[in-house]
Amino acid sequence: MEQAVAFWSGGKDSALALDRVRRGGEFEIAALITTISEEYKRVSMHGVREELVEAQARAAGFPLDKMYVVPDSSNATYVAALRLTLDAWRKRGVKRAVFGDIFLADLRQWREKLLAEIGMTGLFPLWQADTRQLARDFTDRGFSAVTCCVNDAWLGEKDVGRALDEGFFAGLGPGIDPCGENGEYHSFVHDGPIFRHPVAYRMGEKVYRPLGVPKPPDSGPAIPLPAPQGAGKTKGFWFVDLLPA
After folding, report:
1. Which phi and psi (to 5°) does residue 244 adopt?
2. d(CA 176, CA 178)
3. SS3 (DSSP) at 80
4. Are strands 201-210 and 185-191 parallel, antiparallel or unpaired?
5. What stretch of H or E contains 234?
6. Which residue among 52, 94, 130, 171 has the highest number of C-beta atoms inside a 10 angstrom radius?
């Protein structure tokens, strides 16, 4: 069976993508790849502690390849680390990489261009799926997750740390994508069909992080990310510090 590596944020979309690939039976997952802040030991953007992502990988039964990046690293620095990580897997014979992207075409094109330069191709099992249906699939498949980070252009303090259940999805405003594909929220999956056992955790404190002063653009290749399109402008993010239990 052909092998693939799966990019793993620890959240809902990467879990759904991994679940679909495993059920498809065409590819064997060689490892999960996670981007970790070297200084803070947390998943980039999600703010989840490194120990909890390690616990997820153990529960899923896969090796975890941690790609460390420095805080405020430039696009060029990030891309160099990504190339190094992917090239190492390519040299082991792995030619496929799984992503949980749904409809961000610029981001998919950016990934595919980078992969092609290394001699790999991407797998996008959630691509162009109806995000409302994906949210239903998430609960129907028996996944359990909580929001670990929310963008204050769409959501607030009361929304971080909430369970991703039917009530959560039904209560999202009309301008919020159910899967948070525009960056409205990020999540931490702690149970579901991809795990052999639940990932134990407990809630810590909630913290608000305002946006810093934007850095001048560097000479590296820009990584396309969704622009805020919520009711207001993004001023910062609410995080909940999830702790190993």
Report:
1. -60, 140
2. 6
3. helix
4. unpaired
5. none
6. 52
Residue type, 163: A
CATH code of the domain made up of 2-123: 3.40.50.620
- Outline which parts of the chain fall under CATH 3.40.50.620: 2-123
- Radius of gyration of the CA atoms of the chain, in A: 17
Give the alpha-carbon dihedral of 71, 73, 78, 81, to 10 degrees.
-70
Picking from 104, 99, 124, the residue whose alpha carbon sits closest to that of residue 34 is 99
Buried b / exposed e over 191-227, threshold 16 CB at 10 Å, is ebebbeeebebeeeeeeeeeeeeeeeeeeeeeeeeee
- What letter does residue 79 receive in the DSSP assignment? H
Full pLDDT tens readout for the chain, 245 residues: 999 999 999 999 999 999 999 999 999 999 999 999 988 999 988 999 999 999 999 999 999 999 999 866 678 888 999 999 999 999 999 999 999 999 999 999 999 999 999 999 999 999 999 999 999 999 999 999 999 999 999 999 999 999 999 999 999 988 899 999 999 999 999 999 999 999 999 999 999 999 874 443 433 445 565 555 555 689 999 999 999 99
